[in-house]
Amino acid sequence: MDFKGFDHPGRPAGGGTRSVKVMIAGGFGTGKTTMVRSVSDIKPLTTEETLTQASADVDHLIGVADKTETTVSLDFGKISLNESLMLYLFGTPGQERFWFLWNGLFKGALGAVVLVDTRRLASSFRAIEEMERQNVPFVIALNVFPDSKNHPVDEIRDALDISPHTPVVACDARDRDSSRDVLVALIQHLKDRSAVALESR
Ligand SMILES: Nc1nc2c(ncn2[C@@H]2O[C@H](COP(=O)(O)OP(=O)(O)OP(=O)(O)O)[C@@H](O)[C@H]2O)c(=O)[nH]1
Ligand SMILES: [Mg+2]
């Protein structure tokens, strides 16, 4: 896929490498840190702390019972998708008590991946609402766990109440190629949106 025509609004067109800020968002324990880790070209910066007993009741550990750490501030990584496009990845915290950080984190973001664990769909509702509120285009990445059911995409769309234009892709956040494919889908979505915007001018 060729991203050469993709222009970052803050940069002049033509030549050089474009840098794009991308958020990796989603509910608690959906695999955000895992995705930043698997796909980043550099050793990512992570800010994980041990999960405390205090959060045990509110965090609904169903399906991620062996989870011991949670992101308290952000994950940061970067990936060069090709010679002209560099993505800076910002993983959000999933625990509700850190959501107040989201406003600042999203500044300048061109798009987002919203990770969804289909065993716990509701955990990502708030992240989707936030993308819509902050007007950040996004793709849904269904992070497939061994006991995830194979729901038809239309059912998932309905359950998440997202527009038919929002791409939904399945992935394994632990796998670099799979995570990279999600980022490619996001960039393609951003390109499609800007093409539509240009046409309707
Ligand atoms: N089987 C399987 N396990 C995964 C996958 N992705 C993540 N995990 C595991 O699921 C747990 C949650 O992953 P994290 O990457 O910490 O999730 P997170 O969204 O960053 O979590 P918070 O920062 O606490 O919101 C970890 O124990 C991972 O090893 C996956 O694709 N498949
Ligand atoms: Mg995390």
Automatic annotation (TrEMBL):
Protein name: Signal recognition particle receptor subunit beta
Pfam family, one: ATP_bind_1
Signal peptide (UniProt feature, chain positions): none
Keyword Hydrolase in record: yes
Family, per entry: Belongs to the GPN-loop GTPase family.
UniProt keyword list: GTP-binding, Hydrolase, Nucleotide-binding, Receptor
SUPFAM superfamilies attached to this UniProt entry: P-loop containing nucleoside triphosphate hydrolases
